[in-house]
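During the reporting period the student researcher (J.K.) took over the structure-prediction task from the postdoctoral fellow and processed the backlog of single-chain submissions. One of the processed entries is reproduced below for the supervisory committee.
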Amino acid sequence: MTFAIKVENLCKQYGVHNAVNGISFTVEQGTLFAFLGANGAGKSTTIEILCTLLKKSSGNVTINGFKLDVSNDNADIRKSIGVVFQQSLLDTRLTVRENILHRGRTYGLSKTQLAENYQFVSSYLHLDDIEKQKYGTLSGGQKRRADIARALIHRPTILFLDEPTTGLDPQTRQFVWQAIKQLQQETNMTVFLTTHYMEEAAVAHQVIVLKQGKIVAQGTPDALKTKYAYDSMALVFNNNIDGVKWLEDHEISYTVKQEIYTIRLDSTLQALLLLKKAEPLIASFEVIKGTMDDVFLHIMAEEGVA
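J.K. obtained the following structure tokens:
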């Protein structure tokens, strides 16, 4: 197993405040890694350290085999990563193409390599329709496409995405996310993601949840859902059936809202047993799978976050 990122006992202190408090984790090469947490949990601080933009207080960090060293500029690390921040760094007065090519030149790419790389990012992010427009005139979704292209122009092996789809409409979010997943799968790129959208984290290979600078949960989405979420079944009884009486007679716990009775399931298969009993009495039913939203809310509540 090859690790693109290895973090050991990472700490970042501001006076007596521990923004990042002794966290350790690894990110396997070629995977999608989701880094979650409430505002102020330490996500952005951690990313800034990994991207060489902020000095760590202590601990060890290795990126693509290069050890993060506070005493130098970590040029080897910077050449091997791309970063998409919440706030854009592109020049509003330049066109999309001019912005991206200018960024590529800062990496010392040859004219031929720059042209090839631009074609690569343009094909994934569909830049043809916006490449001649000035960046400042673009919509939010168009800007985000250009931002990601900027981060990829030197063909990095790790892409850091700090809440890349925040503020985008659902259609644009879907397009951006499809482009990211396609890149990750087809180029074996490692993607390090922070997001507030739990459905994006649900497709990650590994998830870490951070609170007050510490890791409070980690694992695959399925493992986290098994531990922190649960499936449920919603029933609507026929008009002539007293749902409350039937459920209480069968000693089944439930909640009810607008005549929809929701039952927590110990397992999805439990729904089959309940349906066999209730089938002649119900008008409709739905089995509802636990989600990453449930996981996040459960962990935050467990850890005392409102």
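The committee noted the following: The domain at 3-220 is CATH 3.40.50.300 (Rossmann fold).
J.K. will present the remaining backlog at the next meeting.
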